Amino acid sequence: LHNAFSQLRTIKSAFEIEKIRSAQQLTYSALDSVLSELKVGVSEIDIRMKLDAQMMDLGAEGPSFDSIVAFGNSGAQPHYKTGAKKLSVGDVILIDCGALVDGYCGDTTRVFFTAPPTTQQHRIYQLVHMAQKKAISQIKAGMTGEAAFAITADVFREENELEHYLHGLGHGIGVAVHEAPSLRSGVKDPLEEGMVFSIEPGLYYPE
């Protein structure tokens, strides 16, 4: 029964798509509003609390999942649990957050630099951005989740970076922040018109 309901939820109505869009726009607004708080010495948990509070001030029921704020090498851990680490000059900042609005979820991940990026950081940032844009331009109805994932995996393989691609390409978003469809290796189910999902390739380096 659970699987049947999950499948029914994969195709969104125009009403649902508008609700998800509203949640996403509020997510962006809340994130933009806390960027000025990213100063040397502030802690990850401080920023998360300000971000979550800002979502609610803007009209959300709250975050759609536990917001992730990661400074420095903490950002190299997928699904990192926000801690007490304080921001230092040179840290790369990763923020993964979403707002819950009228029962529908937003979800976005952004990376920020506290100093001019190194040559390697710039290369990786541009590579991930290129892979994301390529996936957005090529994914279409009828393609399997596996084939969608392969678009970005092939980009990273060509650059000898595939070993740093530690998760799938994306996941469905709706009344839950992680639902069908799944865009990852081994998923043979076809994508259909009306599905809503993230496109979030990432490369992770312990250093």
Coarse structural class: alpha+beta
Give me the strand/helix succession. Answer: HHHEEEEEEHHEE
Number of strands: 8
Percent of residues in beta strands? 5-15%
Overall description:
The protein is of the alpha+beta class and 207 residues long. The protein is built from five helices and eight strands, in the order αααββββββααββ. The chain has a three-stranded antiparallel sheet with strand order 1-4-5. A three-stranded antiparallel sheet has the order 2-3-6. Strands 7-8 form a two-stranded antiparallel sheet. α2 (14-34) crosses α3 (44-57). The mean pLDDT is 95.
Structure described in brief:
The chain is of the alpha+beta class and 207 residues long. It has a three-stranded antiparallel β-sheet. It has helices at 2-9, 14-34, 44-57, 119-138, 145-158; strands spanning 62-63, 68-71, 92-97, 99-101, 104-105, 108-113, 170-172, 179-183.
Task: Offer a few descriptive terms.
207 residues; alpha+beta; three-stranded antiparallel β-sheet
Write the layout of secondary structure elements.
Blueprint: H1 2-9, H2 14-34, H3 44-57, E1 62-63, E2 68-71, E3 92-97, E4 99-101, E5 104-105, E6 108-113, H4 119-138, H5 145-158, E7 170-172, E8 179-183
Antiparallel strand pairs: 1-4, 2-3, 3-6, 4-5, 7-8
Helix pairs in contact: 2-3, 4-5
